[in-house]
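Bit of a strange request maybe. I'm writing a small parser for structure token strings and I need a real example to test against, not something I typed by hand. Could someone generate the tokens for this chain?
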Amino acid sequence: MMTTQALPSALAAIVDDFQAVSEPERLQLLLEFSEGLPELPERLKDHPELLEQVVECQSPLFLTIETGNDDGAVHLFFKAPAEAPTTRGFAGVLHEGLDGLSAEEILAVPDDMPELLGLTRAITPLRMRGMTAMLGRIKRKVAAASRTQA
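Reply from user aminoacidic:
Good idea to test on real output. This should exercise your parser:
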């Protein structure tokens, strides 16, 4: 089992929260993250072409990133249906844990980070793959954006 030391502090704190509670409580925590996922900003709401679908997710989940501000921070944006609390919850975890970090910090997050949440017995392997795919898609977009700006 890998530790949270490899994770950025906000993400490590979230993982610690999940690891500190029992499995049924982890699902409740995931639900809380789904409720906390911010809506898309107006400039993205009417432009679905700016968002990329994560096809590995069972529910229709779309995401995009924005970089290039002076501080080099990466900002994440997600669109997931309210009736897909697991998918929304994981998007919420990634948003809270990664939004505002540098490209280097995001690219350093281990690909198997979703397993650290301790949800592998509570949710289906298919949903876990969707979570891993979401993180992978974010990292690919961040890497591509970093190359364009270099």
